[in-house]
Sequence to fold (216 residues):
Amino acid sequence: MTAVAEPVAAGRGVVRAWWADGRGLPAGTVAELAAAALAPHERSRYEAVRDPLGRAEFVLARFVLRGVLGRMLGRPPARVGLAVDRAGRPWVTGAPGVDVSIAHAAGLVAVAVGSGLAPGTRIGVDVEEVRTVPGAGELARRLYSPSERARLGRTSGRAGDLVWLDLWTRREAYVKAVGTGVRALAGAPDQDVGHRWHPLRLPRGFTGGLVVVEPG
Fold:
């Protein structure tokens, strides 16, 4: 587990993020982490995942998150209660002022934890493997704002892929924060309107960051 961001101020609170790399994690280790990190209601979700890398991502995210929260809340990790709301957004039971977000891509897991947050403050995190996205041009026309498309138009090749993914992760992190899901990607605000974006320092070949959305 590696801290990947300096603490980010969020009103009266603070947000921190961590990443962990599940690529190459042996199946036996994944099973051990599952036994240690998963609550009974999470086991069925874990067992429904057939892809070994997907299993590693699912388990590692919860192992890291419960470890961080356990230290922060003064509880054994196994006693940290995690639930999901109707939108599938994770939250911590019995911990007011705490908000969490999880992301994973190609074996890399990112976890963001906000503490001491004012009521209504939400955080979101997203990561992506740097690659050429099929249909990127059409997706940009459907989802990105004119200024974002103009920024894309000034780049090409690998640099263009990175800009496209930076814009995507910002939007994805925002909709995770507000709990509207990917169906609302096109409606996510441009730039820093109504939220603050903080890029993360991730392993080579990945990009991403976290969003803080404060009430009002």
Q: What stands out?
A: The first helix runs from residue 27 to 37. The mean pLDDT is 90.
